[in-house]
Structures are given as C-alpha cells and as structure tokens.
TrEMBL record:
Any Pfam family matching the protein: PLAC8
Gene name of the encoded protein: PCR2
Keywords linked to the UniProt accession: Membrane, Transmembrane, Transmembrane helix
Transmembrane domains' residue ranges: 97-116
InterPro entries given in the database record: PLAC_motif_containing (IPR006461)
Native source species: Mucuna pruriens
Name of the protein in its database record: Protein PLANT CADMIUM RESISTANCE 2
Length: 190
C-alpha cells in the first residue's frame, strides 16, 4: 500500500500551538509521537525552602516579659500585631485583633483562627512544623504560641509596634535619613 520508508500524511500527530519548534525526525512509519525541543529545556522544579528551627522556644517567655504579660491579659493585641506582619499589611492590627476577639466571644476559641496564621507564618519563613502541630499548639497553649510568633517576627527585624507599613517605610528611608535633622528654611517666603 505504501512504499517502504514513506510516511502517510495522517500519521503525524496534530500540531500543538506551544511556540516551540517540533521535530519529526525520529518518527517512523507507524509512530504517532513527536518530540519537541521544549522537552530538552523544561523548567527546573522550584527548590524546597530550607526548614529552620524557631528562634525561640515555645516557653521562652523570660526573654520578653512585657509581651508575655500583654499576651496573657489581652491576646488580641499580640495576635493583631502578628497578623498584620504575616499578612504584609493587607489587614490592620486593629481589624485582626477585633476579629480575633469576636471569634473568642462567639465561639469561645480564638485558637481556631490564630492557628492558620501560625501555619502561614511558618510557610513564609520556612519554619519547622506542620498544620496539625500548629493547631495542637494553639489549642493547648494559645498564649505561648502567640508569644513565640511575636518573638520570631521581632528576631527577624520587625518592629512589632509600628506594624507592617511602618516597617516598610522605616526600611525604605534607611538609617542615614533617620540620623540627619530635617532642613529648615530661613525667613518667611511666599
């Protein structure tokens, strides 16, 4: 029916619009596959983040007694500050703290909300742990977990009191501008 070595036109697979040239050089008379040059230049898989330990332990409250006291008496403040930094300013400290308080009042268990932020923070910074451990830690010892998260962010260079936008502004200004006094114009002018 066909000459030996001749390939019928319908034996080629349909063209796929990928933007890569297709080579049919290794297709035999009965083959239905094509190799593309793209397979030789496949993108590398993303490398997994290096998992690191938390900078402080779960019960290392002695290093920051002030925050531990605030967290013990009013955990919504600590949670709000942590959530603002972890969310990179998309939610404010006040809004996160108010939502945490509302959940505590309605459900009676703010840990249901705060454990998700621990997981999110852990993923952002490549910290050791998993989702199950995050929930257990928050359910069993909410104040210790919030204090540890606060200390971790503080150790990473965040000024927790000024929030995300204050930290961004402070870093963009740089240390040199903070040292110099602002210039003052002499006399009055219009």
């Amino acid at each position: 029916m066909y000459e030996q070595g001749a390939v019928p036109a319908k034996a080629y697979p349909p063209a796929v619009d990928t933007g890569f040239p297709v080579s049919y050089s290794n297709i035999g008379p009965y083959s239905t596959t094509a190799t593309t040059e793209a397979s030789h230049y496949a993108p590398a898989l993303p490398q997994p983040k290096h998992i690191v330990e938390w900078s402080t332990g779960l019960c290392d409250c002695a290093s920051d007694c002030g925050n531990c006291c605030i967290t013990c008496w009013c955990p919504c403040v600590t949670f709000g500050r942590v959530a603002e930094i972890v969310d990179r300013g998309s939610t404010s400290c006040g809004a996160s703290g108010a939502l945490y308080t509302l959940i505590c009042c309605v459900v009676g268990c703010g840990c249901l909300y705060s454990c998700f932020y621990r997981s999110k923070m852990r993923q952002q910074y490549g910290l050791k742990g998993d989702a199950c451990t995050d929930c257990l830690i928050h359910c069993c010892c909410e104040t210790c977990a919030l204090s540890q998260e606060y200390r971790e962010l503080k150790e990473r260079g965040f000024d927790m009191i000024i929030g995300w936008h204050g930290n961004v502004e402070q870093r963009s200004r740089g240390v040199a501008m903070a040292v110099t006094a602002p210039s003052v114009e002499q006399g009055m002018s219009r």
